[in-house]
Amino acid sequence: MAEVDSGPVEPQARHIVYCGVCTLPPEYCEFGGTAKKCEEWLKEEEPELWNRLYSEDSLNANLSALSVSAQERAAKDAKKKEAKAAQNEARDAERKAASKVIIKRVERNKRKHVTVITGLEIFGLENKKLAKELGKKFATGSSMTRSAAGTEEITVQGDVSEDVKEWLGEVYGSKVPQANIELVEDKKKKSSTAAPAV
Amino acid sequence: MFKKDIPSSNRSKVKSSVQRGLRQKLLETYPGFEPYIEEILPKKASLEAVKLPDRVTLYTIDSTPLFFQPFDGPPIPHLRLVHAFPSALPTIQIDRGAIRFVLSGAALMAPGLTSPGGRLPDAENALEAGQVVAIKAEGKEEVCLVGALKVGTEEMKSKGKGIVMDEGHYLGDGLWKMQLD
């Protein structure tokens, strides 16, 4: 950095803590539908702020600002929202558990292969970015393509299926459980009687 | 405006001449940002434009969103920017009862502002229709909504009902949740 005569400019931006669960500023967590989780998170990460926001006094102050009927309505609404959020989450988890990442080795020539990976987007990974990363990692061509069915898949040149599995476990192990990764081999149709890919 | 989640889309570098123009425009619209402009939008930084639905463009530096600009309107700062520099925009306040509606994307209505929990500026500092304002909530420190007023503040006081802001950028909407890396 070049030195300026007027001296370094103090950064004036306020630094704000955002909730790690619902991304809102913590004071708005109660409206996010995941209030309980947010509170726990805040207690762990920012005890000071938690003290200020969730102390008896501030809770009471919040309540007294509304009429009784409005309070009831708000509480009901919050409950509904919370239930919905919980339901969504459960459904999401279920879907994740049921779905599989399929790493398919497709024969291109007698001794050349490409690796096709599908099903990553369900686990919250972005195909396009991941394709680039894979290409870098294995020093090979790698791109996101759309299959005939319209689903997204990553095509990596070369047979890297085993390596991809290992790499996924290493880098994205927290997102994609190893048990949900499946290796499949797909021979050229004419040379084998394996089930044709539809 | 951004009720739905926004899929990540293409971004492109902004020409430096356009960037200068934008900077000028931003300062013209929001004199309050003047003292901080070097920090928000340094001259050397490379600004990027991200296309959002409905002909809105979002401007970012690296992965920090700065402000968005509807096709024909003035630039409106992103809430994160408003949080960082709360004094830059004129602020009005809504009562506690209105927060949950605002945060679920409803249009802002006048009673939320005129009731005892709300706060509007005095007659001499009245805000005109079309002015971009930040909206705070009763008992909260941070701003929860930013957008252009549809009705002047004096008219709100005299009428006391009706829609005040049709579409704004609120906490937890698609733009707020957008992934920018």
Automatic annotation (TrEMBL), chain A:
SUPFAM superfamilies assigned: eIF1-like
Domain SUI1: 101-172
Main location: cytoplasm
Single annotated GO MF: translation initiation factor activity
Highest rank taxon of the organism: Eukaryota
Keyword Cell inner membrane: no
GO annotation, cellular component aspect: cytoplasm; ribonucleoprotein complex; ribosome
Entry remark concerning the domains of this protein: The SUI1 domain may be involved in RNA binding.
Name listed for the protein in its UniProt record: Translation machinery-associated protein 22
Organism in which the protein naturally occurs: Penicillium malachiteum
Automatic annotation (TrEMBL), chain B:
GO BP: any one term: formation of translation preinitiation complex
Mitochondrion is among the record's keywords: no
SUPFAM superfamilies: PUA domain-like
SMART domains in alphabetical order: PUA
Domain of life assignment: Eukaryota
Record keyword Cytoplasm present: yes
CDD domains given in the database record: MCT1_N, PUA_MCTS-1-like
Cell compartment(s), UniProt: Cytoplasm
Residue intervals of the PUA domain: 90-172
Primary localisation category: cytoplasm
This protein's GO CC annotations: cytoplasm
Record keywords: Cytoplasm
GO molecular function term, any single one: RNA binding
A UniProt-annotated Pfam family: PUA
Family to which the UniProt record says this protein belongs: Belongs to the TMA20 family.
The protein's role, per its UniProt record: Involved in translation.
Protein name (database record): Translation machinery-associated protein 20
Source species: Penicillium malachiteum
